[in-house]
Write a structure and sequence with these properties.
This protein is an alpha+beta fold. It has 12 helices and 13 strands. It has a 9-stranded mixed beta sheet with strand order 5-4-6-7-1-8-13-12-11, with helices on both faces. Strands 2-3 form a two-stranded antiparallel ribbon. Strands 9-10 form a two-stranded antiparallel ribbon. α9 packs parallel to α10. The protein is globular, with a radius of gyration of 21 Å. Bound molecules: coenzyme A (COA).
Length: about 375
């Protein structure tokens, strides 16, 4: 049987950074403006004032210290509070495709492959900037790749579900050199005016190359097994979609951006993820102690600490479960891949690890890898 492997990975990090201090300053300025505008209604008890956000709350509740974004100025403008990303003409590369290409170039370099050798592009991301043609097909064209390409969306689990799809196609022989790319422009689906979540997301693009291990020309990780799981929940939801457009296009509706019931997500997803990883390990005959590294979805530090402890049966040691969310915030499906890409090069042959993402759906995806 053909054994798939991850032979390269790459991360495109947007240059612009927003620190918690900058974010909170902008949010509080916005809140003050709105409260001043509504002063009479607030005084009459007809409206609630918008409460200030706080740096301490953000770092304590999430572990996030800063985020990279495509456009900082629009987000931090108290009169705007969303990124200023200009629409592009149809004959220019779309933003997602451009970001994707930058991550793929790095991944190809690591895999020692040429773009022309790619015969499958999966653009796996939690938002797609248009309905069609698939962004993946545009990426394929920008790269000069062959074969075929398609988009898929499983929110925060898109990348691991994409790796499973690519690995299965490599095993089946329907592709020889696949790229799973996750350009995540989370800043454009975040409601920056909502104190409960304005600190959560950042922008990034990640890419991994998946090909038969026997054809790998560079150092690589064998994909020993993948497992995906979904269970419907409304606790993370975004209602923006083409059916809504005709009726709601002109309305400023909160549910057209990312919404979550964070506490419920916390309570419901944690046991699901821990059980998922433990079941997956058991099915493959792996012991938790076999794991040298856990590259987890990057949404919340407390959540990751809990999962690591539950899976290993002890507090993870330094470097066993690298977090990147302090620098990137939650980058949806890209988070676990950033952690993998930045913190896997030191592992020795035979070292085992798990890449795991989770989020809206609910969805959980795990990929068991072993350094060749
Ligand atoms: N600044 C100051 N205070 C804030 C605040 C902010 N930015 N945002 C919320 N608060 C307040 C709340 O109003 C609340 O006050 P109250 O107790 O007086 O009602 C209090 O802080 C606690 O808020 P809560 O939303 O319950 O915080 P939390 O501890 O649950 O942390 C999250 C919030 C979002 C960080 C956390 O729930 C989480 O990470 N959940 C999982 C998210 C996840 O994985 N999502 C997947 C997305 S892909």
């Amino acid at each position: 049987m053909i054994q798939p492997a991850i032979t390269g990975s790459g991360v495109f990090t947007p240059e612009e950074v927003i620190t918690n201090a900058e974010l909170v300053r902008a949010f509080n300025a916005y809140a003050d403006k709105v409260n001043a505008r509504n002063a009479d209604a607030i005084a009459a008890g007809e409206a609630q004032p918008i409460a200030h956000s706080s740096e301490d709350f953000i770092v304590n509740a999430s572990g996030i210290e800063q985020r990279h974004v495509i456009d900082k100025s629009g987000i931090l403008d108290p009169d705007r509070m969303y990124p200023d990303i200009a629409p592009r003409p149809d004959d220019a590369p779309s933003l997602m495709a451009e970001m994707a290409q930058k991550a793929i170039v790095q991944a190809l370099d690591q895999a020692d492959r040429e773009a022309s050798e790619i015969d499958l592009v999966i653009c796996a991301a939690s938002n797609l900037e248009r309905a069609y043609p698939a962004v993946a097909v545009e990426i394929q064209d920008l790269l000069g790749a062959g074969g075929f390409a398609f988009d898929m969306n499983v929110a925060c689990s898109s990348a691991t579900f994409g790796i499973q799809a690519a690995a299965d196609m490599i095993r089946a022989g329907s592709a020889r050199c696949a790229v799973v790319v996750s350009p995540e422009i989370c800043s454009a689906h975040l409601e920056w005016r909502d104190r409960d979540c304005h600190f959560i997301f950042g922008d990034v693009a990640t890419a991994v190359i998946v090909e038969p291990a026997e054809e790998a020309t560079a150092e690589h990780f064998i994909i020993q097994s993948t497992r995906c799981e979904t269970k419907f929940s409304n606790n993370i939801r975004n209602n923006n979609g083409f059916l809504r457009r005709a009726h709601d296009q002109m309305e400023d509706r909160r549910d057209m951006q990312f919404m979550q019931n964070g506490r419920k997500v916390f309570k419901e997803v944690l046991p699901m993820v821990s059980a998922h990883i433990l079941d997956h390990l058991e099915a493959e005959g792996w012991q938790p102690d076999d794991l040298r590294r856990l590259w987890l979805h990057q949404a919340n530090k407390t959540m990751n600490d809990f999962i690591g402890k539950k899976v290993l049966g002890r507090t993870p040691g330094a470097g066993e479960q690298p977090n990147i969310l302090q620098d990137y915030a939650n980058t949806s499906s890209a988070g676990s891949i950033i952690a993998f890409s930045l913190h896997s090069g030191d592992l020795k042959p035979g070292a085992k690890g798990v890449i795991c993402s989770f989020g809206a759906g609910y969805s959980v995806g795990s990929v068991l890898v072993e350094r060749a």
